[in-house]
Amino acid sequence: MLVQKPDGKNEVDASLAADAQMVASMRLVLSIAALSAILVDPTGLRGIAGLTWLPFFGYILYSLIVFVCSRLNSPFSHSKSVHWLDLCWYALIVLSTEGIHSFFFLFFFFAILTSSLRWGLEEGARVTLASVALFAACGVGSTTEKDLPRVLLRATFLLALGYISVHWGGSKVELKRRLALLGDVSRLSNPRFGVDQTITSVLEKVLTFFRGSCCILVTREKESGSCFVRTIRVGESRNSVNAQQIGADAAAPLISLPQNRIVAYCRPLWPAISAFAGTAAYDSAQGKWSQLDGPASDNLAELLDARSFICVPASLRRSDGRLYVFSSQRTFRKAEALFLDHVAAQAFPVIENIELLDRMASDAASQERRKLALDLHDTAIQPYIGLNMGLSALRKKAAADNPLVEDINKLGEMAAKVICDLRRYAGMVRDGACKTEHSLIVVLRQQVAQIRDFYGIDVAVCVEGELNVCDRLTAEVLQIVREGLSNICKHTLARRGSVKLECADGLIRVRIENDADGTQSVDFQPRSITERAAALGGRAHVRPGTDGATAVCIEIPV
Fold first, then answer.
1. Is residue 5 very low, low, confident or very high in pLDDT (cuts 50, 70, 90)?
2. What is the CA radius of gyration of the chain?
3. Biggest alpha carbon–alpha carbon distance for the chain
4. Which sequence spans correspond to the domains of the chain?
5. Do residues 174 and 117 make contact, with C-beta atoms less than 8 angstroms apart?
């Protein structure tokens, strides 16, 4: 079963655009309302005359520009600089009216609300503090002793209501992030990519969400006791999608913590404040946190050079272990540890389902491979054997001076080579496809050598970086490349070609190119290659290469 992923990025972009348009509309209404209030009752404020009107007209013009930009979906309307410019306009309006006595100080709440609801707690807190500072600065030089209570009251009012707005806005942003992560880890990936690819994808998403420096999943098989570890680090390319087996001694620090507890650790910056750090363990049965004694957490943090970490139990059907997120910069909160437990509870049942699907698919594929191997032997290999025997008999009948002897010998060698290739391919079908990147390159080079011998086409093979793909995807990529090379031999007059493979940015890229032959047009789509790429969640397209060449480019997500 394959569940297609919705285009989450487009949904997020549409939501941001709608929010920006709504905020821009309210900003324009607010600016017009402020000017209208003064026009209706200009005596309500002292000092409204002359250049005092300019900030109001300027703010209306600025609001109109932002509104137009939001309608045009300009990046400026989505940026953080908008609410900081709002603060500057509000400070100028307050300063040009009555300073600390102006009721326009309430405008600051608009910037606080929009920043916190759109960008979260940190940005909202910065805007709140800046609003209080700007309001207080508006009274510098004109504030008397009698005005101090009003300044303090309004500043406290801004700070208190601003904190509430920031707290709720930050909670809303954090909740959206959490829901997005839970949706990602609970969504089935392509079963063709296997369990290891899915687990690695979950670890990468968890590491990105918690802004950690390292994410580790350590598991121990219940029957054999063998330990395996998967590690994802920030700034490092993914070395392998497969788990690495480690010894029991090496795994001991990672599995020494209580298996049924959620753990949050923070290393103290100074020994004098060690009371505010340490290891906290959450007991799900009792529903409370308790202090966990012992040097295990300190040793683990020192081993991985981490300032803080959180870890939760990770249980699968045939193994159990722990999921860790380490950070060398920030301090994790207990609430984050509890949410990590929710992520593990959501993700690992999906992984078990994919493992079950993978096992069922492997068993079914094994039976199908045996059947295909027999069919290949009966329907493809046997006719070639008969053809080779016929060519041998024809060669014996031909005299030594017959001009067709050389061609007959070449056809016989080609038939014998095809029989060997078909037998090897039938064995691969029966026993399973190639297992490693090395075997993929070896098979490709054998295919290229055969094309050079039989068709006189020189094909270069280039591999950039490591092809960190699973066995199933390796077999699919190999078949796509074979089909592309076959198209060059059958449908073009090219004498040179190239195959380039690269795995980067979450994609495996394959580029199959042949030189210009004067007859090939790029206005076509290879049906077989396109269908195979689409089945893997990728795409294929044809584009002009260098010097009039034709290139088939395939991109498959990993």
1. very low
2. 34
3. 125
4. 8-183, 190-358, 437-558
5. no
